[in-house]
Structures are given as structure tokens and as C-alpha cells.
Amino acid sequence: MKISDLPTPCLILDRARLLHNIDAMAEILARHAIPLRPHMKTAKSIDVARLALAGQPGGITVSTLAEAEYFSAHGITDILLAVGITEKKLEQVGKLNAAGGEIMVITDDIGIAGIIADHPTPPRALIEIDTGEARGGVAPEDPALLAIGEKLGARLAGVMTHAGQSYAGRSPVEIAAIAEAERAGCVRAAQRLREAGHACAIVSVGSSPTARHAAGFQGVTEIRAGVYMFGDLFQAEIGTHAVHDIALTVLASVIGNRIDAKGAGRMLIDAGALALSKDRSTEAAPKDYGYGLVLDIAGQRAFGDACVGRAYQEHGVIEFSGDLFDIPIGGHVRIAPNHACLTAAAHDRYFVVEGDEVIAVWPRVNGW
Amino acid sequence: MKISDLPTPCLILDRARLLHNIDAMAEILARHAIPLRPHMKTAKSIDVARLALAGQPGGITVSTLAEAEYFSAHGITDILLAVGITEKKLEQVGKLNAAGGEIMVITDDIGIAGIIADHPTPPRALIEIDTGEARGGVAPEDPALLAIGEKLGARLAGVMTHAGQSYAGRSPVEIAAIAEAERAGCVRAAQRLREAGHACAIVSVGSSPTARHAAGFQGVTEIRAGVYMFGDLFQAEIGTHAVHDIALTVLASVIGNRIDAKGAGRMLIDAGALALSKDRSTEAAPKDYGYGLVLDIAGQRAFGDACVGRAYQEHGVIEFSGDLFDIPIGGHVRIAPNHACLTAAAHDRYFVVEGDEVIAVWPRVNGW
Fold this sequence. Notes:
2 copies of one chain form a homodimer. By secondary structure, chain A is of the alpha/beta class. Chain A folds into 2 domains: 3-10 and 241-363, Lyase, Ornithine Decarboxylase, Chain A, domain 1, CATH 2.40.37.20; 15-230, TIM Barrel (Alpha-Beta Barrel). Helix content of chain A is 29%, strand content 22%. The first copy, chain A, has 11 helices and 16 strands. The interface between A and B is large, with 55 and 55 residues.
């Protein structure tokens, strides 16, 4: 089957680019001699997980219980559920662990730490550290850190942080500084816990940009990163990879194409807000790609900087001048996304391609 | 089962508000003595379709082939697929029609009109008219209109338009003017086709705002509208309904809640960009609700104008002052969405509630 035979809109995953991105990250982390616990929240696919785990210890990171259940069922047991746990979700984690999983949870709350410790089948837990993102987590110097560690007792497995503020970085130097704050803050939290007599085996940090640009990871035991596998326009803008490394695109059919008397063109495609997502990450980046960059059916940048400028539920609108798009109705384009995690989540499967050949269909585990 | 027993994040559909919204629209259109062909792109649910069809002729509008197939399989045969058709998609329409469907398609292209007419099992087709939105469609006075009608020949079933520019209206008066342009343009196109000797039985117009605020529908044969069933913050801002009419919310659990020494609070919930969508429709409205308005577990506006201000993949962040949110970790809130169509599409089912009781689970047909 060829790409041009696929129903539209659909998700295309370029296997060669995917492997390139996975290899590039593995190589960077190998230079630092630090292992990777790939974050599967972007790909949500066992097929992608297996590629990302090549040469790594075998543990993964997930963002939902649905992912935890799916990957457990596919034989991956060492899982970090990296969103603050609640009492109710502990029940499901308990069931999955009773069935052979080794799911770890995170918390920054002393009440939840007590509930974990008192649970009949308590999971191992990491304390979430805030190293500047101001989302979840306790600060490395917060007195609450030691109280939570005390409460978790034998269930304390370590500390983790995510310097999400790296997405606001705009140069390798800036991102390296954020990576250093991420590393130093997390290592400092581990040090305080250890000085208070607690074992703190895991010191887990990461985001794709900080993994890519950190000067070093002294004291860190593992890196978490996910979007690097696919890449997207926003990550390209902040220097995680190049635009031509983006492995994930949306295949769309042209459903309208006209040029008015003044030479103003308007091409409609059948990929709109649902197929592309309404993520506008690149709005804050040096270059704003609207709702995505238009590529040709081969995934090449054949139309310069042309973007999807408007996105209705099932219509994308590409405005252009002159005869840029000589594509008939029913012809194809591919759209590179602003934010791969959100675009992929609108689809239930990947059509994996090598050149113009569809070589596999890989399912995704969406929802919660 | 109670709302508080549900897994989070999930989609809550308030049955009483849904019925109120459906009744309100039916009443408005009954006053105009005009039938409704409800647009199922928002709800994508047979259970909702049955309610919306009460007292109506029985035809629906859809936005995807997946919807067309699903509703056909559930016994709704009169379907208008209201996104410009391609040759490839005609094949699937042909199959569904061969199995008993009566799916109609739309086009604004003479090439596609020819392909429809020459098809071995051609569907009936409506010509898409542009009445000011500048998306798809031919202008009412465009010479191409008659050429397309000629090409479609016996397959021509009528004309249709969607005045999507009504979303830019900010008062009932403005929207009524847009509704009149929508009506007049579509009726004019039908008149031109009839004058040229073509039958043009269907004159189909609509959007929820224009259906709500039009002064009249002379010459129109049916209205299409969809989002009115659920409502959302954007539709409330443009006067389609009130905020307290919004029937669709996302149930979320609190996963973090802290107030710093200065009284600045930050509450995290487990509904982020995936569960809420990144739609920011109200950014352009009089009141900007961020990524959604925070309601209590009963769906009441207990927290003033508090909104989800930041949305990460699985985290929503609500910033507040003082002691507004005295909700423990694991406690619940409900988030009213910017744009119901996009928020609903992130979920595969509705938990239908009456008061705090979950009375049904209704599936959705997502994807393409």
C-alpha cells in the first residue's frame, strides 16, 4: 500500500526519521553515560516503545493509567506514572501491580504520602521536585520535602523533576542553564533526603530540550524524554532537532483550491482542528507556523513556509499567493505539527512509512 | 453510581440541560415553521441524535465518513455529509448508500461534479455556497454555480451554506444581519439554478448562532446546527445561550493545591490540554475563559470567574488568590469548555448525569 492509498486525514510516521531521532538521543545520553526512561505520553505505542528502549534499562514513563495498563499488558513492568497520584488512582495502580506490574507513582503531598505508606499494596513512590516550572512539586529546600520522605518511609524510591520551563528557552545556552537548574535542584533534594537518613535511589530528570542540551548530569540516575522521538515544529524552533527530522505528519486531502482574480489562493484540506489539534505552540516561537507546516506527499518542504492558517473542525485553510499549490481536489499534502503529543492524540493509529510505502499500522492507547 | 465515583478526567453530559437546549432550539425553529437537520459533528452520538430529532423530519448532518457510517448503521439514512467531497470518499459513500443509506454530498467544484454525475452509484449532491465565510463554496452570483448545476444534472439536490462568520458576531443584531446574508445568498443561488432550469429542492443554511438569531428564513427549506445541543463558553459569549445552559463539562480531580506565603494559590487538576483541548475560542470573545471555567462538582458556578489558566498535556493549572479553593487532593471540579466540539472529541464516551447520579454511558464515534 502506498501513502496515496490511505484514507484522510490520518497520521503518518516516517520510520527512518523516527529511528534517526531515537538514535540521536541515545547517542547524546550515551556520551553522558546516563540511561533513558523514555516518556511514552507522546507515542502511546508499544511498537515505538520497543524502539526507544533499545540499549536502555527497560523502564518507561507514562502520563495516564490507560498507558500504564496497556504497557503492563505488553510486558513492560518498570513504569513511572509521572502525574501526581490521587487516592482513587492508587487503587488501580495497586491492581496493576498485583498483576505483575512495578508501577511507581509520584507525589508532592504529605497527605497522599501517608495514604501510599498505609496502603495494603503500596507502590514505590518518587517525590516530585519543582526546579523552576512552578507546576507541581516541592522546592528542593522546602521543609515539606523531608516530611514527605519521612511519611513515605520504605516506599520512597527517589526524586523526580521536569523542567518544563525549558520550553521557554530560545537558545542552546539558555536551555543548558535550565538543564543545570533541573539537575542541581533534583540532586540537592536527593542529598537532603539522604542526609536525613532516607534511601533515595532514583534521581530522575528531564524534558527533550534539557536532555538534548545539558552540559552534564552529575548525580542524576536517569533521563525522561518523549517528544524527541517524533519531533515537531516547536521543538525544531527551540533547537531540539531540525525541521526535516520531524517524523510525524498528518496526511490530508485537498478539498478545495482556488485563486481569485488578484492571485490570492486558498486551498482547503480535510485536516482541521480535530486532525491537527488547536495547539499553537509556535505562536510564542521565533517562527509562527500557524496550525502546521505544509509538506508535499513525500514529506518534503516543497512549499516554502506555507502553513495552515485557519483550522475549523474538519477544514484546514492554507492561504497562498500565485500558483504555489497546483494540487487538484483529492490530491495530498502532509502537515508537520506544532506539538506532536497533541496532534497524535487525535488519532488512534499510525501508518508507518518507508519512502512512499506503508509498511505497518501501529495502534495508540488514547484516553484515560 | 455518583459523579464522584467516576474516573477522571471524563466527560459529563447533563441530561436536563441537554434537553433544555434541544427544546429551546426546536421552539425557535418551530416559530419560523422551519425544520432542523441537526449537525451531529459535536455530539457524534446516536443517543443525542435521537433526542435532537424529536419532532423533526429525521435527516441529520455529519462531518466525517465515520459519522456517516455509524449513523447509517443505527438506522438514520437521510444524511448530509457537509464537508467538500473527494473522488476517493465518493467510493465509501457509494458503499454506504448501496447498503441502504441516502447520504448526500456537497461540492463547489466542477471537476468533482462531473465525477459525481458519472459515478456508477452517484449520490445526490448539494452545491456549497459561500455567503461570506470565505472558506468553501461558490458565490451566489458566480457563473460557476450554473456550470456545476449543469454538470450535476439529475443528481443536483439543492444548495447549502454555512455562515461561519457568525462566530465573529458579538450581538444579536450583528448575528441577525449575518443570518440574513446567509439566507439571502443561499436563496439567491437556488433561484439562479431554478431560473436555469434546474430543480433545487433543498435550500439548507445554518450555524447555531444564526439559527438562534435570524429574523426569518424565507425560501430556506432546512436549518443545520449542532453545538447548540451542548453549548459552550464561546457560544455563551456570543449570545447563543447562557453560561448556565452549558450541558457538557469535564470532570477533573484535584492533584495539587497550595497557597504560598503571599496568598497566591495554584491548584492542579488532572484535566489538561488533552482532556480540555487547546481551543482558545474565548480569547477573541468579550470574556477570556482561558482553557475553561471552573465549576464545582454539581456543575454550579461556585468559584466566580476562576479559569484553567495553563494547560499541559495532562495538567490543568488554576491560579487563585486567598482561600477560594478549599478542595483536597482527590476532590473534584468540573470544567466548562471553550468549544464543546473539540473538548468532546478528546473523549470516547459521555457519562450522562441527572443531578449527581450517573444514569447512562453514551459512546461517541470519533476519528474518520
